[in-house]
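Example record

The entry below shows one chain as it appears in the dataset: sequence first, then structure tokens.
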Amino acid sequence: MFFLVCFDIVDNRTRYRVVKIMKEYGYRVQKSVFECTRLSEEQFVKMKHRIEEHIDHGEDTVRYYFICRQCVAKVEFSGTGELPVNLNYRACA
């Protein structure tokens, strides 16, 4: 599955910890945005749980967007950057 994870975290130390976790699961495409291109549902749940252990639920925000492969194929961007990586989908007959 493809997930886009965006966050707004107030505390610098907490933000650093979340970034460190996110780098294990995805690719940083902006300062507070990661593309997680090949996560299983189990990996996603584990990642989310790890993040939620660190954030302040009264001040911080983390958003998780599930994106289907047809929508990923339509990704556009302006400026610097690259299309999502590791999109190794297979057609099943």
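Notes for this example: DSSP finds three helices and four strands in the chain. Helices lie at 12-25, 41-54, 69-72.
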